[in-house]
From TrEMBL:
Species assigned in the record: Chenopodium quinoa (Quinoa)
InterPro entries referenced in this protein's UniProt entry, alphabetically: Actin-crosslinking, DUF569
Alphabetically ordered keywords of this record: Coiled coil
Nucleotidyltransferase as UniProt keyword: no
Presence of the UniProt keyword Transport in the record: no
Protein name: DUF569 domain-containing protein
CDD domains the record matches: beta-trefoil_FSCN_ACP-like
Coiled coil residues, start to end: 264-303, 350-408, 570-646
Source species, domain of life: Eukaryota
Boundaries of every DUF569 domain copy: 1-143
Amino acid sequence: MEFFQRAKVFRLKTSNQSKYLIADQDEDTVKQTRDSSSTYTRWSFELVEGKTNVIRIRSCNSWKYLAASEEPFLLGMTGKRVAQRPWLGATVEWEPIKEGPYIKLRSHTGTFLRSNKGLPPWRNTITHDLPGHWTASENMILWIVDIVEIDHKSTNGDSKSFKGNAVPSRLSNAVDHKSFSSCSTLSIEDDGPSTNSASSLEHSISFSNLRSMLDGLDDKVYVVTERTTSDTGRVLKSEIHMAKQSLKELTDMDYHGILSLGLYKELEKAISKLSADNKTSRQETLQEQLKTMKNDHNLATQDLVDYATFDSKILEIKAEVDKDVAKACVLEATLDKWFSDEYVNPRANKEELLMELEETESSIKAVEVLRSRIAKKNERLEEMEAKEESWQARQLEAERKLERVEKEWVKIKSLSYTAIFLGLCWSQHSARVSSINGAKSSIVSEYSVQSAFEDVQTLEVKRAKQTFEQLKNAEFCTILSLGQDKKLEKAVDVLIADAKSIGRGKIPSKLVNIQEQLKSMKNDHELASQILVEHSTFSTKRLEIRDELKKDAAKARELQDLEVNVNNTIVDARAKREELLKQLEETENAIKKVEKARSDSMVEVEELISRIEQKSEGLKEMESKEKSWRVRKNEAERLLERVEKDWGKVKNSFSDV
């Protein structure tokens, strides 16, 4: 906030381009300009109640506030637009943050006021953005406060002292230094001990003359010739009369005038003569007092002379800085204009060449990629067609195997009636044997258990026979597809187990053959089905590749026809690409030459800026000593006043002499 404490009207200057923040005449846009004399570059500020170190910045023309809007400056970019707005709450509030001799202005969202540079659309624009969202250096968010008008009502006694607007490390404004020079003059007068400016000026001139006269004071020699004649008394009386006359004339003068005219020795001599004539003891006291007054006067005069030299040096340095700043501004503006004329056009041509080259490269690449894809698909299609014969043979073999499986299933169904009948006979025989044995058995309980077991076994056999009866009319592939193969295998296993129990370990060979045939048929059917599925997938894939190849070929013909209409052949496009590359190289060389010339020219600007910075540092050091010099100056003036008062007292004591 210290940059704004004394500012009634100020300008905000960029730290990297010597441009000023300007409120455009449309009362909406905010941008940058080099015209520091424009009234649209002037701003004022207001404190925000209840918030420390927060201000609102207001244009002195439109009286609208500097606002950080939420509108994006460019689509796809992080920077947001800064505009002139009436009162809109927190959007017009900024927090100044000191950064050396510069300030940063932070918005309520944490973004910083940023001055953009470069080619359009960035040139001379103002945005606000978060730290880290820009690739340029951080000095784009550093600003210099140039005070145009000082608010004297808000300044106290200390603020009147010359602090100056710290000369920035880069280019500053000459007008402000002049205003600060006037502030320096005012501070010298205001801090004095109630003396007006006219008397101070007279004292400064008198003190300068006094110093020149004091330099030759010691060279003045008074030669007193002692008369050796007999009229010594008469001569002594004459000398006393002359001493009184001299003392009377000197008492009509102030002490400063006596010293400045080199009459101190005459005063000292007159007092010595009169004191000796009167034989008074005050001679030594008066002479000692006069010497003390002389020493004090010389010290005070020397301090005033040194202060005048110091103040003159400050004014000289400010004048030199003003000249260097003006020269640097003119030189930089000239260089910017020359660089924009010599650099922007080749740069624009380069962008056009790059776009055209990119389009040419894209067209060439598209055709080449399409051709490569067509070639790969042709190779793959040839490989698949080469395998087509073997796949057809496998398909025929699989179909034959399926037919053979169905024929074997028919045979098994015809054989199954014999096997079932055989199993039925074995069951009837087992029942008769069981009944005979049961009749002979005397144990009723054993017969009951065996009868129950045989009933369960008979039920399972009946179910197995029913399964054969249900499946005999279905095809074998249908049985497998419906998942009935497990049921069929279980029925065969039951019949085999039944036959084994009837034959006391002997199994009918027909049932065993049926079981083996069913397993073999199932394996053959699965292998054949897998081969047919793979062949179907292979055929589908081949048809898809053919369709894609037809589409790519049609697109290739379309691109080729288009290419013929534009450049006749792909060779012409490649030749055009080579020509564009050559033009691009020439443009790059031209841009490099312009940049080198600008760099060489900027050396002079950098040297000038370096000199300004050095002088600014020296000026800052002198400004830091200004307060102590004012104290010494005031002390010297008070010392001179005290000497004059002491001189008045001394004149009153001459009556005793």
